[in-house]
User: What shape does this take?
Amino acid sequence: MFIIKKERKGKDYYYLRQSIREDGKVKAKTLAYLGKTKKEAELKAKEYKSKTENKTMEEAKRKEITIDELANFCKRKGFIYPSADIYGGLAGFWDYGPIGAELKNNIKAQWWKHHVHGREDTVGIDGAIITNPKVWEASGHVENFTDIAVVCKKCKNKFKVDESELKDAICDKCGGEIESKGKFVPMFTTQVGPIEEDSTLAYLRPETAQLIFTNFKLVQDNARLKLPFGIAQIGKAFRNEIAPRNFIFRVRELEQMEIEYFIDPNKKDECPYEIEDIEIKLLSADMQEKNSGPELMKIKTALKNKIIQLPWHAYWLSSSLNWFKSLGANMENFRIRQHTKNEKSHYSTDTWDLEYKFPFGWKELQGIADRGTYDLAAHQEKCGKSMEIMDDASGKKVLPMVVAEPSFGVERAFLVFMNEAYASKGEDNVVLKLSPKIAPIKAAIFPLVKKDKTLVQIAKDIYKNLRKEWNVIYDESGSVGRRYARNDEVGTPFCITVDGDSEKKKDVTIRNRDNGEQKRIKIENLKDILRNLISGEISFNDLK
Ligand code: ATP
Assistant: This one.
């Protein structure tokens, strides 16, 4: 949309116009009369734009989607397939297609950027998937990482329960009576080396965290870290889940993004960072006992009222929520829930889960646990080497504690962003409103007419230039409307069209996925503008 001035009998008149395409030609259409002065015109244009934006937002309402619909959509569009689908798949294992692999990589890259590169006090590592089995003995996984497998007597549904829940548990599908099948260690085992002996038994890691603990001293020394500090890791983990379900929510091969955040145990209440005050639904242990809540509350208020015990927990909860918010997630679909007495691990003083309203209900997205000195102390004892480090401030050696372990699965983050983004426009037309930061394809470049060699050449030159920096595509097949729709469905935020005026004016139109608005911009400015639009430095409305 743009404002134009027309002069008639010595007087100025302002109008709001828009370029539209009809029969393959770009035409300007008057949308509204804006008055006689520039100031009045700018004001009215702003009002008009915001009204139409709200309307288009309403039209493109977020569609509630079931998890099966989402799984079908993901397969159809190349996000995720059942692993080795041609053989019928394997429960709990999934393969990522061309669009899904991009989205997954972008989510991980954004997490790393925010939590590792974006912080002075955190470094990242990449540990092995199979490591010395003593690690899992020391960590307690071999002995305690157990679930109780249960089967419903009525519908034969298999699932797992915590030991504390076994007494009152009923079938989570039909409500029938359940039968316990006993304890079950969900760690996958394998053999290291070609000869099968007991000594070659090893495990596929069930979490990434332990590699952070075993490398703790080396990393702290190499990166010259001073308390408080974090060590982060993104990597695969494997859990032989009894009942993988809900698409990629519970899988057997997963990828975790974890931080172990270490502090001096004597300084548990000293969090030097500003806590961003997010308002969020909160469900305390107390509320759960009284069957009340959740209550909408500011995180700082919960800390002040001692509902959240530690400033560090308030800090990490708001930091984690902020990460999702910065990538376009709606905070109404999030809540924080405190573990009840029965749920809490024996080494933890307080644990909070970040929960999300998935299509199948509120479920854990991320755990923010206080692990104390449990892991470092356990490895110290097992390997016989000190895990203590020198605290420069006190001049004393100290065994650091983990005050928070913001840890979650990439798959669950993937589900959150897909669920948040899925919107419908009209009958079957899906618009995936992914944040440009994580969108698999950042822009699609089209020549308006594929038979026009000049347009094709300009479009291909733009494509080659943009491809040096982002994942972009060139598309010339089908009508422009069809090309828009194809890109809307996989979340491409911007479509760039080269039309009949592009050669002369050295410009193109850029279209905003979320409301279909188009603007003309100079080709020489395209890369800078796109960079700023993707990073969020500017919004589409800021474009002239
Ligand atoms: P749950 O109770 O859902 O089994 P958990 O409490 O065992 O999870 P943690 O051991 O705390 O989970 O793992 C940290 C995070 O890793 C979880 O919050 C979740 O995001 C992710 N995660 C754990 N198990 C799975 C799985 N089987 N599939 C996908 N993600 C998982």
In short: Residues 207, 239, 241, 250-251, 254, 256, 364-367, 407-409, 411-412 surround adenosine-5'-triphosphate (CB under 6 Å). The first helix runs from residue 38 to 59. DSSP finds 16 helices and 28 strands in the chain. The first strand starts at residue 2 and ends at 8.
